[in-house]
Specification:
By secondary structure, the chain is mostly beta strands. 10% of the residues lie in helices and 58% in strands.
């Protein structure tokens, strides 16, 4: 009798276990992005066959597999404009992220080109291949002695051409030279 009861209990447990779903609780490990190299108070140079084309200084630079991060950084880029004058484009930001040829400047972004243009904004994007800077945030700037306010900046650094939406440009006529 005890054997019949035992076999009956095993049979009911096996039938019930067929209809109960089983969850596979194996957690897939999420790959963490680990820093490959970290530099403190770094200066990086990019050279071509003639000259230094880029200089990046930062308080901390971190290299990951797919991106670079720089904190409290200054990005200096030497460009040749259409009139063959060498210009120095200077970007400063509290954080710069580089993915392939795209740069993202975040928090207190400032852009200077020689002494005639300066822009300030919270975020700016820059492509190293096309040499185009753009954003979709408000910005303030100076162009020679005039002031410039706007949103959605598009700046072609190679052609020295810029445009924006909802812009306001004031020219100082008092200091006419």
């Amino acid at each position: 009798m005890a054997i019949r009861l035992f076999i009956f209990i095993l049979l009911t447990i096996s039938v019930i276990s067929i209809f109960v779903p089983v969850d596979n609780n194996t957690k897939e490990s999420i790959p963490k992005d680990i820093a490959l190299v970290t530099f403190n108070n770094s200066t990086m140079y990019t050279l071509d066959d003639i000259q230094v084309t880029r200089i990046i200084t930062s308080s901390e630079a971190i290299r990951y597999k797919t991106r670079d991060e720089m904190y409290e950084a200054t990005f200096i880029h030497r460009t040749n404009s259409l009139n063959k004058n060498e210009n120095m484009d200077i970007f400063t930001a509290n954080f710069i992220e580089k993915r392939e040829s795209n740069l993202k400047f975040v928090d207190q972004v400032k852009f200077y080109r020689d002494k005639f243009i300066s822009l300030e904004t919270d975020i700016m994007y820059y492509n190293l291949d096309t040499k185009i800077a753009y954003n979709n945030h408000p910005f303030k700037g100076k162009y020679y002695n005039g002031t410039l306010d706007g949103k959605n900046l598009y700046l072609d650094i190679g052609k020295t051409y810029f445009k924006s939406e909802k812009s306001h440009f004031e020219i100082d006529l008092e200091n006419k030279e």
